[in-house]
Amino acid sequence: MAARRTRSGTGSDSRDGAPAPAARADLARVQAVLADTWRREAALIVATVARMVRDIGLAEDLAQDALLAALDTWPRDGLPDRPAAWLTTTARNRALDLLRRDTVLAAKLVQIGADLQAREALTVPDFVDALDDARADAFGDDMLRLVFTACHPLLSPDARSALTLKCVAGLSTEEIARAFLSSEATVAQRIVRAKRTLAEAGVPFEMPQGAALRERLASVLEVVYLLFNAGYSAVRGPALLRGDLVHEALRLSGLLARHLDDAAAGPDAAEVQALDALLALQASRSAARVDTAGQPVLLAEQDRSRWDGVLIQRGLAALQRATVWGAAHDQPAGPYALQAAIAACHARAATAASTDWAHIAQLYDRLLAVQPSPVVALNRAVAVGLAQGPAAALPLMQALLAEPALRDYPWLASAMADLLARLGRHGEAEAGFRHAATLTANQAEQALLLRRADEQQRLGRPA
User: Which helix (H) or strand (E) holds 236?
Assistant: First the structure.
C-alpha cells in the first residue's frame, strides 16, 4: 500500500511527452474545456494512477492535484493540444515524484518499474512478470480493475456502490445521495470509511481471480448498473443524459459479458449476460429520448425509427444467452434478467400502442418478489395503470405516498400527476407536476414537468 503523502511542489508536469500548450486561450474557454475534460476523463485518470500507487484515495488526491495544476497553468500558458493527456501525464508524474520521495516505498520501486503503466520509473520492466500479469487479467482494463477493487468484500454493499460512483462516475456526494434515496451525510461517511478501510487493509489494485472474482461479481454488476443509471437520467445539469457514463457502463458490461465464461462467473453467469442485455436495450432509446432542441420526449411519444437497431440486437441476443443459461441450470430469472425482459417488450413493440403492458405488469410482479423495493413497486403501479387503466393504479400509487424513501422522489409525484391527468383531475395533476419539478435538479426534467403542468392548467380552464 502506498503511504499517504504531504503536498509538495509542482512536480514535473511536462515530462514524458506531455503535449505542448497551444496558443493562449481566454479564461472562459479554458474553464469550459477543463470542466468538460475532467467530467469525461477523471475516472480513467484515477484508475491509471491507482494502478501505480495501489491506493484509491491517494489516486484521487493526485488526480485532483493535476486538476489544480491545470487551473493554474492553462489560463497562463494556453490550452494543451490534448487536455486529457496533459492531465493524465501530470497525475502520473506526481505519483512518480511521490514514490521516489517516499522512503517507505523505496524497496518497492522495482515493482513499480515493472508495471507497464509506469514506464517512466527508474528500472527496466521485467517482461516475464508483465506477461504473467497480463495472463492473469483477461480484461486488461484499468477502469474495470478500479471497479473490482472498490467492490472488495471488506466494504459493505452500500459503501462499495457509493465509492464506485464517486471514483468511476465522478458523481458528487449530493448526486450519489439522490441515487440511493439517502442523506448526503450518510453517503459522505460511507465513502470516507470505504477509502480508509481499503488503505489500512492494503488492498491491492488488481483484478481478482477465481473465487475472489466471483465473490465480488454481484457488487460489480450492481455498480455498473448504477453507473448506467447515473448517465441515463442525469441527476443534475442541463442535459437529460450523460452520454459518457452511458457509454462507459455499456463498455464495462460488454467486457464482462465477453470475457466471463460460466466457470469464471459461477451462479451469476446469467445475470452478467442479462445486465448487458438490459443496458443495451435501454441505451438503444437514447437518441429518441430528446428532440432536436435537446428537450425530453416521453416514451409514448418517441420516434421509434430513431432507436438503435444494433444495440437492440445486442440486447436481445444477450437476453437469449441469459435465458438459455438459466434454463440449463434450473435457475430462475434474476433482477437484471427480469428488467431486460421488460426492456425487450418495449424494443419488440412496433408502436407505443402495441406495447404489451399486461405482460410488463406481470414481469414487475416477479421483479417485486425477487427484489422488493419502493421504486420497483412504483414502476409496477405505472405498468398496472397502463395495462388496466388509471383507476386500477390509483390505490397502488396512493399507498406509495406514505413510503419514506419516496418522500422526495420526483417520479412518484410525476407518476401520480400522470394518473390524475388521465382521470381528468387536471387541477390536481397540474399541482403534482409542479411539485415534481421542485424535486429534481436536472434542468431538462424540470422543463418537461413544467410543460406538462402548463398543459394541465390549459385543460383545466373552463371552456
Answer: strand 236-237
Question: How far is 22 from 39, CA to CA, in rounded Å?
Answer: 21
Is 17 a residue whose pLDDT tops 50?
A: no
pTM of the model: 0.74
Is residue 56 a contact partner of residue 205, using CB atoms and an 8 Å limit? yes
pLDDT of residue 100: 65
Least confident of 177-181, 191-195, 322-326: 177-181
**Pick from 393, 427, 389, 387: nearest CA to 412:** 393
Residue 139, Cβ density class (10 Å: 0-12 exposed, 13-18 middle, ≥19 buried): middle
Q: How far apart (Å, rounded) are the C-alpha atoms in residues 165 and 248?
A: 12
Query: What are residue 57's DSSP bridge partners?
Result: none
Question: What totals of helices (H) and strands (E) does the chain contain, helices first?
Answer: 21, 2
Structural contact between residues 266 and 221, judged by C-beta atoms closer than 8 angstroms: no
**Exposure letters 392-404 (e unless 16+ CB within 10 A, then b):** ebbebbeebeebe
What Cα–Cα distance (Å) separates residue 389 from each residue in 144, 229, 382, 393?
A: 44, 28, 10, 7
Instruction: Report how far residue 374's alpha carbon sits from residue 296's, in angstroms, rounded to the nearest whole number.
Output: 25
Say what percent of the chain tops pLDDT 70: 85
Domain ranges in the chain are: 27-136, 217-355
Cell of 461: 380552464
Which H or E run contains 442?
strand 441-442
Report the distance separating Cα 452 and Cα 63, nearest Å.
42
The 3-state DSSP class for residue 290 equals strand
More confident residue, 176 or 7: 176
Q: Among 161-170, 259-268, 345-354, which range has the highest average pLDDT?
A: 345-354
- The three three-digit cell numbers of residue 184, written as one number: 448526503
pLDDT band at 127 (very low <50, low <70, confident <90, very high): very low
Q: Which three cell numbers stand for residue 118?
A: 509506469
Q: Kindly calculate the radius of gyration of the chain based on its CA atoms and give it in whole angstroms.
A: 24
Query: Is residue 378 within 8 Å of residue 350, measured between CB atoms?
Result: no
Q: Of 204, 187, 102, whose CA–CA distance to 149 is shortest?
A: 204
CB atoms within 10 A of CB 226: 22
